[in-house]
Every structure is written in C-alpha cells, then in structure tokens.
C-alpha cells in the first residue's frame, strides 16, 4: 500500500531490473508537482535548493526509521524528537466537519509550503505506526529495488512492492540460478574405475 510517507521516501528511486541506475527525484520539478497533486498538498514548485536539502536530510532519517521498523525494532527517543521537530514545522487548525450526517474534527494546515508537507509526511508515518504496526513496514525483497511500502494484507506476508514486477523478476532469477546450479553439477564428470585404471598404467 502506498502512503504519503512511503511515496516521499521512494523519491529516491532505484532501477528494480538491476541495471544499477538510481535517481533522486526529490529535487525534480516534475516529481514535486506529481507528489503535491497526488496527495492534495500545496507548496511552491520548484522547491528552492535549501529546502530540498532539508527534505533530503529528513528523508534519510525517515528511511533509517523505516528500515529499523521493518526489522522489528521500535522507534528510539531521538526518532520521536526528530518527528516532533518536523511536526512543529506544520501547524494546523482544528475545524468541525459534518460528513454523511456524522460530526467530526478535521485538521487544516496553516501554511502552504514544503515545511508543511514534511510535517504531513511525519504525521502520516506516525499514523501508520499508531493505527497499524511497525512490523508491517516492508522493504522490497528485490535487492535492486529497495522500495519501501506498508503491508496492509491480512496475512502480513507481502514481500515485494509489486508481485507482477519485482515478484516475477525474482522468480525468474531463482529459476535461472537453480538451472545454472544443476548444469554445474552435471558438468562435473566423475572418473570411472576403468579410466582410473588406465591412467594408473600410463
């Protein structure tokens, strides 16, 4: 499942097919426009270089937290401090709302900039941990991909970001590796007793 925070992390893109090519899309105007539209957020495009630098630092810290959560660890005190620091960048106003005859409370961002966006990313990450479980965070099992995602399946056994892409690719790789191993074993000829005897008389 794609989330606001995982989409932010995956702006650091790696070629899942294994070419070794990677691309940091965070500073690209095209990606920034896509991200804001995708999650209905507002900020200036393109983001200035200083802001992009701050976002990269936050992305690195958030990625480290995600990897540790995926491994079964919990957030440390310094992680919580970092998330609180990011949340402070994006103040919100509480607003009553009525949807489908039910009364609720909505949170409206006060600012419309990339600092507000980072605060929303931090809040999204926290909601995933609070409403779900940290061990549902996954790093794609394709080592060339490294895509971060949230496993919302019932059995919690999702290994790949996309079963049709990375899942099938890894299946083909395992099949080829097995075939190669079988060929290597078949290629190792064991000398017969007859040949050994002939060799000993030379």
UniProtKB/TrEMBL annotation:
Superkingdom of origin: Bacteria
Region (Disordered): 177-202
Range of residues in the leader sequence: none
Domain Zinc finger CGNR: from-to ranges: 136-179
Residue intervals passing through the bilayer: none
A Pfam family the protein falls into: ABATE
PANTHER family registered for this protein in UniProt: BLL6575 PROTEIN
Entry protein name: Zinc finger CGNR domain-containing protein
